[in-house]
């Protein structure tokens, strides 16, 4: 009985291990220079960099590999909504767009490294752009789910001393109802599904579209 049980366990482990082994054999990304560098650091064969920024040291390197023709096109971000719409960005496109958002945060929102920003968005492409932009600039992103109430957001804004909040049309009224209770809040940034504007809010889409490639400084 014990021998049979042992045999079944070994068989299960072997079967479970097969896909992983196949993945490691076939997945080209694991043999990339970036992954090899990471492995070398993990094994202590290469010293940790004094400064590391994921957006610049990983995303931008993949972008350059794409530009140099050393890597076939593969989406860095592929997003599909429930209505069949989709967004596909290469590493270069994600890099350019995230730089534009970084400039938006630094210029229009007057944020600086170490400042906090509360981002209350569903998982739409703008969420990822803001995340990468904050990594680029050193701005501290505080994520929040779309189910947050006005009281929830008030607590987070007060406790974090966030200077900026980013959210959608649906939650903007809730933010307005508690904004006066948040003395550190300076800027409200609206990611709108339409072209409309809201008093007291900056339009993410309008500001994003102002920047062209020549304006991208980060």
TrEMBL record:
GO molecular function terms attached to this record: ATP binding; fatty-acyl-CoA synthase activity; medium-chain fatty acid-CoA ligase activity
SUPFAM superfamilies: Acetyl-CoA synthetase-like
Enzyme Commission numbers on file: 6.2.1.2
Annotated InterPro entries: AMP-dep_synth/lig_dom, ANL_N_sf, Mitochondrial_ACSM
Keywords (A to Z) from UniProt: ATP-binding, Fatty acid metabolism, Ligase, Lipid metabolism, Nucleotide-binding
Catalysed conversion reaction: a medium-chain fatty acid + ATP + CoA = a medium-chain fatty acyl-CoA + AMP + diphosphate
Biological process annotations from GO: acyl-CoA metabolic process; fatty acid biosynthetic process
The protein's enzyme class: ligase
Residue ranges of every copy of the AMP-dependent synthetase/ligase domain listed in the record: 76-202
GO cellular component: mitochondrial matrix
Pfam families hit by this protein: AMP-binding
Family under the similarity heading: Belongs to the ATP-dependent AMP-binding enzyme family.
Name of this chain's protein: medium-chain acyl-CoA ligase
Organism phylogeny: Eukaryota, Metazoa, Chordata, Craniata, Vertebrata
């Amino acid at each position: 009985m014990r021998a049979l049980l042992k045999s079944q366990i070994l068989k299960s482990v072997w079967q479970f291990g097969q896909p992983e082994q196949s993945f490691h054999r076939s997945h080209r990304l694991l043999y990339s220079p970036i992954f090899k560098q990471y492995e070398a650091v993990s094994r202590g064969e290469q010293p940790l960099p004094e400064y590391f920024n994921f957006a610049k040291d990983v995303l931008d390197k993949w972008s350059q590999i794409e530009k140099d023709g050393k890597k076939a096109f593969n989406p860095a971000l592929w997003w599909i909504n429930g209505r069949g719409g989709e967004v596909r960005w290469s590493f270069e496109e994600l890099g350019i767009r995230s730089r534009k958002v970084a400039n938006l945060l630094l210029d229009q929102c007057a944020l600086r490294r170490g400042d906090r920003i509360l981002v209350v968005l569903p998982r739409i492409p703008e969420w990822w752009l803001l995340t990468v932009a904050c990594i680029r600039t050193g701005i501290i992103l505080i994520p929040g789910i779309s189910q947050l109430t006005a009281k929830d957001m008030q607590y987070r804004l007060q406790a974090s001393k966030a200077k900026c909040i980013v959210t959608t049309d649906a939650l903007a009224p809730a933010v307005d109802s508690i904004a006066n209770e948040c003395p550190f809040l300076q800027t409200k940034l609206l990611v709108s599904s339409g072209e409309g504007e809201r008093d007291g809010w900056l339009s993410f889409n309008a500001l994003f579209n102002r920047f062209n490639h020549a304006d991208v400084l980060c």
